[in-house]
């Protein structure tokens, strides 16, 4: 009887731990989408400036490595009419979170058509209990 009672009391605690992980993943995914949407659609660089770490690094689609300031300045090269931020995988361990997915966009970058789909990876670190963007990679997908 004591064993059965222990099991019934322990299961909700285990499920609560799973829910908090899911909530953290959802929080990170929403932050990631917010950063992309504000930057790409609204040309609002303030969220990126506030949330990205000072040593933020972007590996842009053509393979260029950009600093935080270069990424902020690059917003003027965008003319995007729509973006769909798709998440394929989110992984969180202690103070590091990685969101991997696909951007489906329409518009131009540097007056050239944007690739239809771009694979991205966003790496976040938790500093003072807040998620901060530390690195992002973007690679055009070859769609068949």
Structure explained in plain terms:
The structure is a single chain. The chain is 35% helix and 45% strand. By secondary structure, the protein is an alpha+beta fold. The chain has one domain (2-140): Nuclear Transport Factor 2, Chain: A (Roll). Strands 1, 2, 3, 4, 5, 6 and 7 form a 7-stranded mixed sheet that branches.
Mean pLDDT figure: 88
Q: Unreliable runs, pLDDT <50, ≥5 residues?
A: 3-20
For the sheet with most strands, the description reads: 7 strands, mixed
Strand content: over 45%
- What's the number of domains? 1
Give the CATH class: Alpha Beta
Number of β-strand runs: 7
Report the C-alpha radius of gyration, rounded: 19 Å
CATH topology: Nuclear Transport Factor 2, Chain: A
Which descriptor suits the 3D outline?
globular
Gap from first CA to last CA? 60 Å
Q: Spell the H/E element sequence.
A: HHEEHEEEEE
* Helix content class: 25-40%
What is the correct CATH architecture? Roll
Number of helices: 3
